[in-house]
């Protein structure tokens, strides 16, 4: 009887160790499989626009939803703390909208559903959140930008306000002397702050202290008129590019607010702009228009001639579900907020130097 019990115990132990060994092998195989699918190097080989045999102009780099994916690796103790307190969920993007990247490589994302601006300080490997402003909290932060001194400007469409924070995310002051209706798009150019007011159908140019320097625009369909504009970009020559969303176009103005040009129209073909939500520019002067209906970004030359389309509806890398914001760095990395996929996707414009 005792021998039989020992034999059963040995068989059970053998089954247990075999099961554990197979489980470990299965976990390793799953991890390797995931690593293969998510390996950036592997995906760079196929995620180019336009596709081969054409010369590539845009390449997919990565996407991120968490600090870890953005390049901020948590320590063991930080991971333990997050697991206990739920920090991983807090720091995941939910509805990323406006986006900015400063000269130090810090990434700023306005997340409307979290009522927060999340700062990914990649160089210093930490993350900050801005949730409080003045005497209360942020409600619907739509966009964010930074000036050369490191001050952070945040537009809150629900509070009809623009708030200013120091580089550490501490509240300083607001643009209380400007009566906004629904401030949305922001752009910092030196000590000047450009603000799109969607419900006022205009653009406000202010000093970094909130003093109005210039306003232009009324509701309408004519040149220099707007119909629910949402975003803007200012280039090095101080030309102003405005996403005139419900006029289905991009309008271009000089530094004095005088109309220069426009391009785009309603439709569903490549080159049409049925819902332009954001606009940016690379170092070659190509204009990038993020369109929420097209679920992608359209490239135009400096005269508004259509060049190519990047994107399409979906959740794979290089696809979008309601993209909302775009920012291009001086070294041509393209950051696009992909709202309904809860992530930011990063691409790179390949100049002739980079392609060689």
The low-pLDDT segments are 12-45
First-residue to last-residue Cα separation = 78 Å
Mean pLDDT: 88
**Treating each run of at least 4 consecutive H or I residues as one helix, how many helices?**
6
Task: Describe what this molecule looks like in 3D.
With 356 residues, this protein is an alpha+beta fold. The chain is 18% helix and 39% strand. The chain contains 6 helices and 27 strands. The chain has a 5-stranded antiparallel sheet with strand order 1-2-27-26-25. Strands 3-4-5-6 form a 4-stranded antiparallel sheet, with no helix packed on it. Strand 18 and strand 19 form a beta hairpin. The protein is globular, with a radius of gyration of 24 Å. 38% of the residues are buried.
Give a brief description.
The protein has 356 residues and is α+β, with helices and mostly antiparallel strands. 18% of the residues lie in helices and 39% in strands.
């Amino acid at each position: 009887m005792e021998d039989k019990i020992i034999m059963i115990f040995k068989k059970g132990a053998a089954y247990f160790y075999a099961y554990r060994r197979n489980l470990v092998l299965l976990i390793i195989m799953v991890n390797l499989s995931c690593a293969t699918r998510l390996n950036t190097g592997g995906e760079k080989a196929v995620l180019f626009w336009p596709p081969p045999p054409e010369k590539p102009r845009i390449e997919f780099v990565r996407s991120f939803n968490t600090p870890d994916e953005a390049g901020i690796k948590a320590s063991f103790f930080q991971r333990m703390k997050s697991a206990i307190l739920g920090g991983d969920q807090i720091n995941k993007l939910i509805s990323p909208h406006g986006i900015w990247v400063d000269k130090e490589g810090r990434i700023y994302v306005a997340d409307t559903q979290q009522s927060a601006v999340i700062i990914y300080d990649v160089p210093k490997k930490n993350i900050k959140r801005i949730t409080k402003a003045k005497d209360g909290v942020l409600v619907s932060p739509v966009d964010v930008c930074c000036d050369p001194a490191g001050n952070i400007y945040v537009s809150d469409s629900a509070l009809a306000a623009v708030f200013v924070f120091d580089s550490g995310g501490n509240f300083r002051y607001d643009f209380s002397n400007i009566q906004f209706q629904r401030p949305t798009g922001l752009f910092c150019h030196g000590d000047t702050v450009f603000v799109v007011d969607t419900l006022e159908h205009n653009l406000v140019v202010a000093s970094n202290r909130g003093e109005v320097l210039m306003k232009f625009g009324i509701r309408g369909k004519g040149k220099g008129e707007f119909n629910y504009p949402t975003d803007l970009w200012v280039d090095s020559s101080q030309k102003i590019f405005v996403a005139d969303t419900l006029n289905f176009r991009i309008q271009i103005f000089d530094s004095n607010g005088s109309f220069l040009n426009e391009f785009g129209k309603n439709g569903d073909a490549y080159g049409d702009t049925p819902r332009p939500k954001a606009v940016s520019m690379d170092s070659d002067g190509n204009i990038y228009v993020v369109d929420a209906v097209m679920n992608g970004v359209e490239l135009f030359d400096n005269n508004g001639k259509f060049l190519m389309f990047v994107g399409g509806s979906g959740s794979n890398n290089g696809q979008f579900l309601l993209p909302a914001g775009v920012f291009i760095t001086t070294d041509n990395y393209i950051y696009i907020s992909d709202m309904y996929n809860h992530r930011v996707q990063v691409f790179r414009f390949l100049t002739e130097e980079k392609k060689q």
